[in-house]
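ingest -> validate -> predict -> emit
validate: passed (alphabet ok, no gaps, 216 aa)
predict: started
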Amino acid sequence: MLANIIFETFTKGGPIMWPLLIVSIVSFGCVIERAAWWLSESRKREDAKLDKVYGALSDGDYETASRVAEGSADPRVRVIYKGLHHAQSSLVGAMQVQAGVELQRAGRFQMVMDTAITLAPLLGLLGTVTGILNSFSGVGDSELAVSKVSGGIGEALIATAGGLGVAILTLIPYNYFNSRIARLQFELENALTNTEVLVDSAKKKGYDTQIWRKGE
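emit:
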């Protein structure tokens, strides 16, 4: 029963409802994928391992720090490991590159959702225009004027509501994901700064400044 009502309402929205349906499927698919990704990512945090890495760095034990950080699923620890692994060339530069990789991974499909938020209302507006045009096409007919006018208005309203609905339901998770990305960026910058400070501090304390690199 409910499925029939939904299908009838959908068909009354006119042909513009089909591209709206495609946009909604793509958009909601991205939302579900990102929600699952962030849920999985939140379980990968290894605060204890991060503290061990910081402790080893403060003692100037770069080999232990790199060994502890290797293979970690925590993006903060991965950034530090990347820096230690390429410390001979540029500790900070390598960490910045890895941080960019982590942020790019976190921002996957954000552009798709942003496009859907803009495109869906525009498609709804296009449906509004075509619905009103259909209404005007019925003006002047003696028998079917009322049904054509009301049908065109109904098409316009349904298309508008559909476009706004897709945009609203995408906008809320989109903004949430953006906030998570901003938080991740802060954490990665914090890890980079802490690592740089600890390495400089270890050098000033007289520890060995030769940072261990895998393969040597």
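Helices lie at 2-12, 17-42, 47-58, 62-69, 75-85, 87-106, 110-137, 145-204.
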